[in-house]
Amino acid sequence: MNAPAPRKIAAATLAGTTLEWYDFFLYGTASALIFNKQFFPSLSPTVGTLAAFSTFAVGFIARPLGGLVFGHFGDRIGRKSTLVVSLMLMGIGSTLIGLIPNYQAIGIWAPILLVAMRIVQGIGLGGEGAGATLMSMEHAPADQRNRYAGFPQMGTPAGLVLANLLFLGSSALMPASAFATWGWRIPFLLSFVLVAIGLMIRLRITESPSFARMTRNDQVVRFPLGAALKVGVGRLALTLLVGVANSAVAYVFMVFTLSYGTQNLHYDRQFLILSVTGSAALWFATIPVWTRIADRHGRRTMFVAGSAALLLWCLAFFPLLNTGNTGLALLALAGMGLVVPITHCVQGAIIADTFPVNVRFSGMSLLLQGGAILGGGLAPMIATAVLNATGATTGITWYLAAICGVSMISAMALFRLTPSRAAESTVDGLRDRDAVPPAVHTRPAGRDDH
């Protein structure tokens, strides 16, 4: 494969994940600012917001289903075809959300249809995260695996920026009452056009060379998820917990802050959306810096230090935000934009390297989506419930600090394990295609590139 090919694949995966996350985050922004009144009008503002965040969490609950289905077929028939289908599902779900009548028009069917389309979104995104990371990483030069695995990760903040700008732009074009009534649908309907463009890009990419080599060598596994689980319960649990904190903190910062800041602290909605958007732009811009450091110096020290920085900033975040001072609020959000990417940029590569190539999609999907539920899927709902119960953000701060501590300790334990196989190894066996991978051993002191 010539040199430009990996960069072309990386750009294509970035474009696809950006569009998928645009659709997913658009829902998050709307659930924080619009859906409580459109789909739960009979509830109080706080309970309505909690109900809207509950539908937001449904998408996370659906993600493992998508991960299991797409992971199975991604390990058996290829990465490319599953990525095409996942993008189509996300586009269909988002477009139809823009067409759902509100509660006043069709009653209880409005939130039911909203939840149904959120499930479709979740299934689509469940197949995207692992697949895009593997497609880019498995095309990467050997000494730049973290860098290329980081390109799909950049789609997360890029999707948030795109969603917030289109949401804010649509609201600026009309009176607030018109936007709350029907204007919010415009960004959802635009996803049809954006996804069509994404599909044209995605259909032109080539299959992962790792998967192609695996099929040539007749190393396809009959039940890849079952084989993936054989890496060991301890290693699976630690890898799962490594990514939980980043997900939880990110969704409190990106989603909960919008509802809390406007309803409780009375910040201007436009200011908050622009501040979160600017912070996401910092997140996007710094990922290549951190992945390059990981490739040159190893990701172990960087990830642990990044976890500590994330914990410390969680302790400062709400005290700064609660001052009511726009400058300090901007500092709080910008700080998140700088510390979140340190761990986020390499967690995909960490999870991928837990598994051999012929069960990697299935195993990675399981851990990635499981961590998303435990972290980001529950975080806005937990934060809202804690705020409603206590009337203060102190409990939220300690919740985030505790989960950061768990992830940091898990990372330190995980990095003491020797990788159980080379990056491109497979689970093959002779007649038993579900052969158990080699056991995990304790590593000697020294650098570990996990």
What does this protein structure show overall?
This protein is mainly alpha-helical. It has a single domain (4-414), classed as Growth Hormone, Chain: A. It is 77% helix and 0% strand. It is globular and about 60 Å long. The protein starts with a helix and ends in a 36-residue tail after the last helix. 54% of the residues are buried. The model is unreliable at 420-448 (pLDDT under 50).
What key attributes describe this structure?
single chain, 450 residues, mainly alpha, Growth Hormone, Chain: A, 77% helix, disordered C terminus
Secondary-structure element string: HHHHHHHHHHHHHHHHHHH
Q: What CATH architecture do you see?
A: Up-down Bundle
CATH fold annotation: Growth Hormone, Chain: A
Distance between the termini: 26 Å
Mean pLDDT over the full residue set: 85
- Which percent range fits the helix content? over 70%
Uncertain spans: 420-448
CATH class: Mainly Alpha
How many domain regions?
Answer: 1
Number of β-strand runs: 0
* Strand residues, percent: under 5%
Structural class: mainly alpha
Number of helices: 19
Q: For the CA atoms, what is the radius of gyration? A: 21 Å
Largest sheet: none
Large-scale geometry: globular
CATH superfamily: MFS general substrate transporter like domains
